[in-house]
Amino acid sequence: MGNKLYVGNLPYSFRDSDMEQAFSQFGSITSAKVMMDRDSGRSKGFGFVEMGSAEEARAAIEGMNGQNFGGRDLVVNEARPMEPRAPRSGGFGGNRGY
Question: 0.90 cut: is pTM over it?
């Protein structure tokens, strides 16, 4: 097991410091990042926490998964590597015979 965790179903008011504070009871936090929407500046409702060790990560999953924060039950599990995405389409495509 790795020590990076996915944290989903976060309240939209949650910030990095809130997540760090919530998870610090299970050990040392290497990083805590709530993903934010570029346009609105609002939380996307998920983020990532990196714990100091795999044992601390396991304890955090057991202790935080299903806990209620701001009326929402958190989903906490081991983060998986990001899957490659298809190239974006739209916008100026160039070379369209102009």
Answer: no
With tokens 């100091």, the residue in question is 52
pLDDT tens digit string along 23-60? Answer: 999 999 999 999 999 998 889 999 999 999 999 999 99
Q: What are the extents of the domains in the chain?
A: 4-78
Mark out the alpha helices in the chain (DSSP H runs): 16-23, 54-64
Rounded CA-CA distance 30/54 in Å is: 12
Domain 4-78 sits in CATH 3.40.50.2000: no
